[in-house]
Amino acid sequence: MFIHATEDSNKVIQAVKNLFPKQLAEEIKFKKTNLTGHHGNPIILLETRLKEKELIKTLMNKLASGLNLLDKKFLAMNFEQHAKKGSFYLRLDKQSAFKGEVKLSSADPIHLRVGFKTGKVIEMMKTFKELGILP
Asked: Count of domains in the chain?
């Protein structure tokens, strides 16, 4: 996710942490990379990675319980547009995340990539349905 010079980096980090269950949020370590924007403005790239299957499942369950039915239907209808080479890409609203809510957004979002062992879209959809991310 990108943190622009006009944003409070602590608030953006908190927004990301709010997407995770509380017990997991405190354990998350972020990698920060300083970048320069097109007009010379400072940008921070913030990244974290989860590898443990149970932690990923816990995160997915929290996202599934937070997404409203309209967002879930949107993901289901546009699933193939979000799935590429064994990964599924979600874009979540920063402002909503800061308030503890989970909403899809395409404008300056929190980027979330979920990797799968299989690149088969039908298998990825099946997993997301089982987790409750898709209706």
From this structure: 1
In terms of residue numbers, what domain contains 87? 2-131
- Is residue 35 a contact partner of residue 45, using CB atoms and an 8 Å limit? yes
Q: Using alpha carbons, select from 5, 32, 8 the residue that is nearest to residue 94.
A: 8
The tokens of 64 are what? 């599934």
What does the block give as tokens for 48?
């974290």
Check residue 29 and report its DSSP letter.
-
Cα 77 to Cα 4, 8, 59, 90, 122, distances in angstroms = 31, 34, 22, 14, 13
CA 60 to chain centre: 10
For 82-113, write each residue's pLDDT tens digit: 999 999 999 999 999 999 999 999 988 999 99
Give the residue among 135, 131, 134 at the shortest CA–CA distance from 57: 131
Kindly tell me the burial class for residue 1, based on how many C-beta atoms sit within 10 Å of its own C-beta (0-12, 13-18, 19 or more).
Answer: buried
Q: Judge whether residue 23 has pLDDT over 90.
A: no
pTM: 0.89
What six digits make up the tokens of 70? Answer: 């309209």
What's the average model confidence in pLDDT over 7-31? 90
